Amino acid sequence: MALTHNLGFPRIGAKRELKFAQEAYWREEINEAQLRERAKNLRQQNWQAQAQLDFIPLGDFSYYDQVLDMSALLGNLPQRACRSASALDNYFRSARGQSAGDNNKLSCEAGALKKWFDTNYHYIVPEFSQHSEFELHSSELLSQLTEAKSLGQIAKFKPVIIGPLTYLYLGQSSDNSDKLALLERLLPVYQQLLQQLFDAGVQWLQIDEPILCLDLDKRWQQAFEHSYQQLKDSAINILLASYFGELQDNLQLSLDLPVAGLHLDAVRADKELDKVIDCLPAHKVLSLGVIDGRNIWKSDLNKLLDKLEPIALKLKERLWLAPSCSLLHVPVDLNSETNLDAEIKNWLAFAQQKLEELQLLAQALNCGRQSVAEELEQNRLALSQRHNSTRVHNKQVQDRLDALKPSIEARQSVFAERNKIQRQQLNLPPLPTTTIGSFPQTAEIRQKRRAFKAGKLSANDYESWIKKEIAFAIKTQEQLGLDVLVHGEAERNDMVEYFGEQLNGIAFSDYGWVQSYGSRCVKPPIIYGDVSRPQAMTVKWAHYAQSLSCKPVKGMLTGPVTILNWSFVRDDQARASTCKQLALAIRDEVLELEQAGIKIIQVDEAALREGLPLRKSQWQDYLHWAVASFRICANGVKDETQIHTHMCYSNFNDIIQSIAAMDADVITIETSRSKMRLLAAFEDFNYPNEIGPGVYDIHSPNIPTENQIVELINKAASNIDIDRLWVNPDCGLKTRQWPEVLAALSTMVSAAAKLRQQLLPKQQKSSGQETQEKEQALV
Ligand code: GLN
Ligand code: ZN
Description:
It contains 27 helices and 21 strands. The chain has an eight-stranded parallel sheet with strand order 1-12-11-10-9-8-6-2. The chain has a five-stranded parallel sheet with strand order 17-18-19-20-21. It has a two-stranded antiparallel ribbon with strand order 3-4. It binds glutamine and zinc ion (ZN).
């Protein structure tokens, strides 16, 4: 008998009920009891939805984030946030901080957000110091157990917690002390928790240790052995869950740990399956994550059964089946989608459907395939339709991809040569000023876009309205005295969605939301087929903007790697191929912008770095095709066309060579928060092209002073030649208000002007000297 279970269910609700409840609570429209009531309903719905499983996860629900839940459970919320009698408020304050302006409250810094492994989910980073102490605060978790009791047997519920090693690994020590030194203080709290859960009737506990899929050094590996030795005396059965990749070096370690069961991500670690089964200790349960928790495609159930049948014979009731990881990373229920094309919808499975697939697999294994023959046949049909669909395959796109020659990636001339031409053509002052693309997205802008989408505003009216916004943006920038202008991106709801909606081969759902952090959700596009561009996507707006000004207006595009990394991607071809198809589509847009007279084109690659694989050994391969994709899309232009790229992150050291290999003429980056520290990477490596290090943090409502900006540019100038420096904010301004933007940009422009003044005499002197020398040479 194979058993079924789940590692975690999306907690946001099929219609984002959690988001609306959280935000209503933060706006003080509902009280704590009301928020708790809504959360309870969601949990009950989720448990109901999973009732068919042999084990239902508990504790996977979170008011904000599962890592922050662990910090609360272990008594490790930051001191600065723990100010009120309400544990829930302290918890939210740890996540979101508090600004001094809020009803005269004391300000409190928000917790840092970091990406959860290679997903697009962000967790709140645990904070440590050498003095960290831990203390069990289990009432929240225990009360969920009480809640579950009223629904059924408690033994059916399997609480989920994050293991001690992953918890420490993900955190940050403020004094740079050794995090592993805290283990001795942490483990007794875990022991105590295990005892409490056992006393409450729990039989199985899932302990997540996804860092087992990372490159771990010896110390961390030994710490695993040590920790689980300490926990093994508990009477509770531990299912140790690894996910998001192969175990590799940690495989034997994972098999040997003294726990009752091991979960393997059988989607990503498929190659290790045989070895794990061969070496599995005789008493251990093996949970196989066979349903992909990171994507939205239907599984190939017949193929899975071919693989699982012999394993089930061998392991019998020691075989458990599950999704590969928590279903947190996929939308809740495909049945909510009423507008999705029926053919495409039939290829998909969201969380709810994935659990149904799991049930089918278990039933086929336990009662024979004939007991679900009809469902298996339907699954086979759906997959074969997808495989053969003309919606998926576009011969023209494939031929173009097959015919790609390396020369398509190269600019006509090397940077030094085209830079000369660009300087002549663009005639920009030293330290040219610009912005990253978007301007404030006011309530009015959002409302107009929504009205247009809903068919309540005619295309003509919408177009003239967008033009009005563009004209306003251009006029404002001219008044501010910026050198390179942007059109402002008023027509874009989201930098990926805007392009995805206009490209063939990409679909959008209505409710396919996935939690990004806290109450923020994203709705990733679904790349289902060969990607092509039926018509120009931005040229009309860029051309109009340029017609209003003599100054250059940047064309503004999202790059292929970013579109790929923020989408659900097809699983029937390599990511690299999908990325290159996107690159070709964007390339056509780049060339059409150039033809329309746009002299500077920016291709944003905000998500290039976050696509890095978890294992270093796979970095080169990824970077190779990611950089190639960028080059394909951007490098088809003439020498005089200047290519910019923008990246909003601050950690370049380990990928700087790849950034340079992209060969953009200008790169704008986030540097203001690190006070330009990261420019060291550009200096050490001797980055050859031009750079716009962000001179103020757009994420903060604070207006920078002229001196602060001058200081930052001076600092940048100590790393980078001043004639290769640009002056700009560190990211787009869409989340800000106009008054802040006006104030900040005018300060930025005057700071640049001040520095030019200081520069100018030197330049005049040097050109004067040059004439003198020439005259002497003539004599
Ligand atoms: N051009 C985009 C903007 O300004 C870039 C956004 C980003 O880097 N995330 O909004
Ligand atoms: Zn950015």
